[in-house]
Amino acid sequence: MRHKASVAFPHITAYFKALSAYISKEYVHIDFRQSDILRLHEIMMSFAGYEYGGQYKTDDNVILEIDADGNRRVRFRPTSASETPKAMEQLELAYLDARGNANINQLLLIPCVILDFLCIHPFRDGNGRMSRLLSLLLLYKNGFDAGKYVSFEEQINNYKTYYYEALRQSSAGWETNENSYFPFIENFLSTLYMCYKELDKRFAVVHGKKITKKARIEATVLNSLTPLSKAEICKILPDVSPTTVEAVLGVMVKTGLIKRIGAGRMTKYIKA
Fold first, then answer.
1. CATH 1.10.10.10 residue ranges for the chain
2. Which class for 138: exposed (0-12), middle (13-18), buried (19 or more C-beta within 10 A)?
3. Which CATH number fits the domain 56-201, given the four candidates 1.10.3290.10, 3.40.50.620, 1.10.10.2910, 3.40.190.10?
4. Is the pLDDT of residue 111 over 90?
5. How many CA atoms lie within 13 Å of 46's alpha carbon, on the beta-carbon side?
6. Where in the chain is the domain with CATH 1.10.3290.10?
7. Confidence bin at 205 (pLDDT 50/70/90)
8. How many Å apart are CA 118 and CA 113, to the nearest integer?
9. How far is CA 43 from its chain centroid?
10. Helices (H), ranges, the chain
11. What pLDDT score does 20 carry?
12. Where are the alpha helices (H) located in 50-105, listed in sequence order?
């Protein structure tokens, strides 16, 4: 059965499909390069039914905000369409160079790159969703994979007022290099923390009793946004034996809670 949001919001569905089909499966083989970014945008937009994905904007765009009286005004003017390819090339090179610097903390670098991406606003549509996909890509590549099991997007939406305020503060003066990255970095790290906090609930204590291993395995698979292999479940729940994981998965498949995808070592499980 399709979730109602899947029917009502094709953009949301497209985001999660791109996350599942490309980021979660291929992150080891892709990087923060223009070719990969354009390919990711093409995949995401195609899932939403659009044919203009995979290419930078051809017209200038603006970021609008609406005041309490309903009046619209321009809050931010991103990089012009004519300057976007060059700006993205510079961003790619700057990130790859900074990533190789052992003195730069990757958890501080990633939100800076994402903010720059948002300020360039390189696409006609889908820039916000792309920023979340790229955030997860860079986090996964640096070993921070809570987003595989807890929705990074959902955590942002839960506190979207704070997210947009941080974005507003950090983008102010960006075009003249007079902005402060700190508000956006702080919000980004808070969002990541909330993802790990949510993941940690699977190890929670209820009424003084630790949740059973069976319940934790079930929660891990049923709450996952993408299919999980037995090895991935064991990684999330290191104190649970592979034999126990396999036994619980077998019961869940038989009872129709989850379905099996693939075969052999490629077998994964997802909520039915």
1. 205-271
2. buried
3. 1.10.3290.10
4. yes
5. 11
6. 56-201
7. low
8. 9
9. 15
10. 4-8, 10-18, 24-26, 34-47, 84-99, 106-120, 127-141, 152-158, 160-171, 182-200, 213-222, 230-236, 242-254
11. 67
12. 84-99
Tokens of 130: 């792309």
- The amino acid at residue 21 is A
Q: Which CATH architecture has domain 205-271?
A: Orthogonal Bundle (1.10)
Phi, psi values for residue 150, rounded to 5°: -130, 135
**pLDDT confidence tier of residue 209, bands split at 50, 70 and 90:** low
What confidence tens digit (pLDDT) does each residue in 41-76 have?
A: 998 888 777 788 999 999 998 887 777 777 887 778
Predicted local confidence at residue 215, as pLDDT: 86
For the CA atoms of 178, 31, 193, 160, the dihedral, rounded to the nearest 10 degrees, stands at 60
Neighbours of 116 (CB within 10 A): 20
What is the rounded CA–CA span in Å between residue 252 and residue 260?
10
91 and 113 Cβ atoms separated by less than 8 Å: yes
